[in-house]
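U., I forgot to send this yesterday:
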Amino acid sequence: MPAKSQRAMDFASEKDASCLFTTLPLEAHGFTFHSKQDFRDLIRMRYRKDIPGLPSICPCGSNYSLDHSQMCSLGGFIHMRHDDENRIFAYQAKQVFKDVEVEPSLQRLSGEEFKYKSANLNPEARSDTRIRGFWTKRQHAFFDFTRSHRAMSPKLRRRYIRA
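Result:
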């Protein structure tokens, strides 16, 4: 079996790997399939099979593939996955906190300097979620979501996610 197919089988056969198929279909959280094609595409993705109907070239100019669609921030599915996690987190936070905002604008910078180059200096910068009172009363806590588990082995990824 090719290495990519073997890796897909390893992930699919791990404990709890089928949780998507045993989850209650709750429309409020987006846990439903809107068409038979969505279900078929998900199965094909799970076992790293080609999905018919995908474009050959991404808007970023690269060749479009299933792997590329999961990583490209311009023409891929990364924003949809990101928004799902953020939406669920904000929904749960609203059950506990009164003041929760999704994608709030951040305060504009006025001459501040940052140690790390990863700081977002864009005047239109936004956070994923803001919760007032999360750490301390009357103070805002800002949350950003990222994905970085793709290159990990299934066992290491599981340990990292649960930590």
